[in-house]
């Protein structure tokens, strides 16, 4: 993302990780003061902070988590055996997670999870024992299932992070050619 005010803002912009979405046709980004200041030219960080709101342009770029598998953090609100909420961490590539299911390890009896908000998925139908997950991930127009076969141990605990053993690195395919859409770099 980069700010469109050439007096205050750098042309290079900064990278941010989006974890939630707005279901309207308006786009608002709420970012940390550190990220906000990173949009500015040298010595103009405090000036851009004083504005509070700036016009920006953005482009979607792949997330890179070198040597890091997709992981899930069991949220503090989880209460075994009645409720499980997990936050998905280190989702690499240029993808969107659109569905998540859970099952006991070794079982084919999958139960769906609901997106609670952002990268947090939850269910009140928690299987017993160690748990596996499967995800539907889209990159552009294509979607695929990704299986993480042994993620949560039977004695999972809120606040803990568990490695899924899988990595996501897919890159979105362009929906139109450069001649149809321009260079597609900034919106």
From TrEMBL:
Its main location: secreted. The keyword Lyase does not apply. Keywords: Secreted. PROSITE patterns: EXPANSIN_CBD (PS50843), EXPANSIN_EG45 (PS50842). Residues 82-164 form the Expansin-like CBD domain. Belongs to the expansin family. This is Expansin-like CBD domain-containing protein. It comes from Citrus sinensis (Sweet orange).
């Amino acid at each position: 993302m980069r700010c469109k005010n050439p007096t205050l803002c750098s042309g290079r912009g900064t990278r941010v990780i989006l974890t939630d979405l707005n279901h309207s046709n308006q786009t608002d980004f709420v970012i940390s003061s550190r990220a906000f200041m990173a949009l500015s030219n040298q010595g103009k960080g405090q000036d851009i902070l004083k504005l509070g709101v700036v016009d920006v342009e953005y482009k979607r770029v792949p997330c890179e988590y070198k040597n890091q598998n997709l992981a899930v953090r069991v949220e503090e609100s989880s209460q075994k055996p009645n409720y499980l909420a997990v936050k998905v961490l280190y989702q690499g590539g240029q993808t969107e997670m659109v569905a998540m299911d859970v099952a006991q390890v070794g079982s084919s009896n999958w139960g769906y999870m609901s997106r609670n908000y952002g990268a947090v998925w939850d269910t009140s139908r928690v299987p017993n024992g160690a748990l596996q997950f499967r995800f539907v991930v889209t990159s552009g127009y294509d979607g695929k299932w990704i299986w993480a076969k042994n993620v949560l141990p039977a004695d999972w605990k809120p606040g803990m992070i568990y490695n899924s053993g899988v990595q996501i690195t897919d890159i979105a395919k362009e929906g139109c050619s450069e001649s149809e859409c321009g260079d597609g770099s900034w919106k």
